[in-house]
Please model this.
Amino acid sequence: MDIGAKLKQLRILNELTQEELADRTELSKGFISQLERNLTSPSIATLTDILQCLGTDLGAFFHEKPEDQILFRKNDYFVKTDEELKNTVEWIVPNALDNAMEPIHLTLEPGGSTDPDNPHKGEEFGYVLQGAAILHIGTNTYRIKKGESFYFKSDTRHYLTSKTGAQIIWVSSPPSF
Model:
């Protein structure tokens, strides 16, 4: 586990600067910076204080859950061809068959973005029809292009940007409009 990166991610998710976190924990900004870069290690008491200021505790911080797959490419899709009915079905998010979602159609103009300050909690799915975009989830970014899809639990800040424009089918549950 990368403790420094995880602390930095929590700080950013709480929209705090290093200086603001340092003030709240009565530590120095330099010490917070060293922690985030794994140049020093905190005592258990100090880590507990930092985590309390970030709205969590030691148990939740060290609980490792497997990372969910977010980006799906053609080689991830499950394809079933029915010779008798002469059709082909592609599951473009193989692990999302049981999710209730409502579709919307999204077009990103060149330089466009969705609103990062208006997230909702639920599930998000998207399929890129044309162009390319960057999906921002917390501090992670994913480049998505035509023919690729994404799926994630939308419990953190997320939005899309595109420099060249994109057309995306976006499905969310519950609906966000």
Summary: The chain has a mean pLDDT of 82.
